Structures
1.
Amino acid sequence: MTTTRLNLFFLWVLLHNCSLLTAQTTSSFELNTNDLFYAEVYDNIFRGHFEHVDIAPESSDFTSIFHLYLNTFGKQCPSYLPEDKVKIMKKVCAEERVESNAYGMELSRTCIRWEWVWTGLYAKPDLYAAKVDLENRMREKSLELLHDMIMDDNKMGNTVDMAHKAQGLALDMATFFTQNACNGKAVLRFEENMKRYALGQESIRIKEVSKYTLAKETGGPTGTQDFAKLLDDLIEDQAKTWMMNKYIGGSITNVKEHAKDANGKPLEISANYKYSGWGNGNGAVRVTFENGLPKCIYFADFPQNCKKPNATILATYAKGNYTE
């Protein structure tokens, strides 16, 4: 090969590799996560920005997301499954041991034999294999997790918080595939990176930063803010996962700003609100801020439980849309 041809060959290789790199680091498609409970998690997994995903792969939160996502896809998008699709199985109790007292009153009920049964749903084989691998690793940590739950000083609050997260995830999956096409590029990228995150593999990384990450880096706005409106939106979003009570929209009163940082941005605000359920009631809430953005929502009934604010609301607040 002549020197000229050799140089042209290396030039072609260089340009070809550059085009591949560009395809891997830029994106012309987006995953629509607006208003979803786990919006920030989904978006950072989609982008391959695993360093910004704030739940660990071997956590109950992520395992639940993976599990319910596969079930939801199997229900809502069955025509987009491959020919080599696999059955989604679940473990059910096949035999129980019941202990009763001398009066026939049941004292305890324990499962002594389990078996795997088909749910009636199918999944993509690579995603299902990753889910099973993840659940097996979680099972190995079950005693450690059980110990942590027993020793937890805030068992009741964290148990309620788990129920709220489960409800939030269920609401997410009810709308995920109305906001995103089953066979769309964004969903396919999300699935691939979700699998890689579960298995501890390197992500396919998109260059563009998540709007949720950008909002945190930019920080909250300066100037006078409509905290009553902000709290109304934050609580209304949280109330979607409440089991018994219902938030009465627009009922925010007694808004107080307790402290500001050196830039004049809030550090903590509090307020009262009204709810209905078992009769009408009055509630209290306080919100702490970091870099001028709401970080934790604390309700008076469980004052130790930090509720994460809706990421879409945070991004909207960061843009100054609540400025008076």
Note: Strands lie at 86-100, 106-123, 246-247, 253-260, 266-276, 281-290, 293-299, 302-307.
2.
Amino acid sequence: MSEHGYEKGRLNLPFVGHCTFGKQPICLEWDKIEADVAILGAPFDMGTQYRAGARFGPRSIREASTLFSFGHGGAYDFEDDITYLPVDKVRMVDIGDADIIHTDTINSHANIETGVRAILKAGALPVVLGGDHSVHIPCIRAFDDQPPVHIIHIDAHLDFVDERHGVRYGHGNPLRRASEMSHVTGFTQMGIWNVSSSNREDYQAARDAGSDILSVRDVRRLGTEGVLARIPEGVRYYATVDVDGFDPSIAPGTGTPSHGGFLYYEVLELFQGLAKRGDIVGIDFVEVAPDYDQSGSTAFLAAQFLMNVLGFIFHERDQRAG
């Protein structure tokens, strides 16, 4: 069992050293990834329809994540009496950022896809830090030679627009594009609400593609177990989380804040249950735009959420392995 590192080595406080995700080792040679988890930045925000700034999301999440990185052999949770992410069992690396080509969505997305494919080829779980929600398109496309996935989507917006004025790869399109991929078997979309989300036809298209659409109030009415019972069991899940699905009272740093969103534990408990129900095989966390958040709380939420969810994933994998 891993032991905490308080008595030996450097103290390595959050503001000391290189700023990788969780202060994990860096691996910039994508053909030499040896890890269970690989973090990829996707600092692309040219798909936004309103306020830009999510290109700085990966950098801010990495910096926030250093708070959760020192003095431990893992992350001990006294409520569960479990040390999550033990350093002797779960190897994490930060592989840097995909190269972004300004004004060029197609090639920027292709570079993101290349990074995710490299992670999958190495047998690691990809965690992609956005960037606007359009980066989900290349992320999920990279799974086309993998077994099928069911998409778990947290967001205030449906993101099921087909095309507007020729735009097919903006941050309103990602779930529609995913629905066109044969390796995507269905969707559970949670947190979706009305104003500015989408039109009636897009909702019908999502349902026709196999989506179960739940508002925040639906989720609260059903409760965690009720929601989980609606999600296919024993399958592979890919999670795409837009930070505007959280209420802006706790996550103001985003381009399209939407009041009435989730609180932290509402989403975290869903993911803890989800990790027990099937295997979460990929995550993107998008739309963090730090310039709209003077306190930095949005980036801290993203970093803490990802650390917690990764802990749940690998604990349940270990339990299933016996």
Note: The helical segments are 57-65, 105-121, 136-141, 174-179, 200-208, 216-228, 264-277, 297-321.
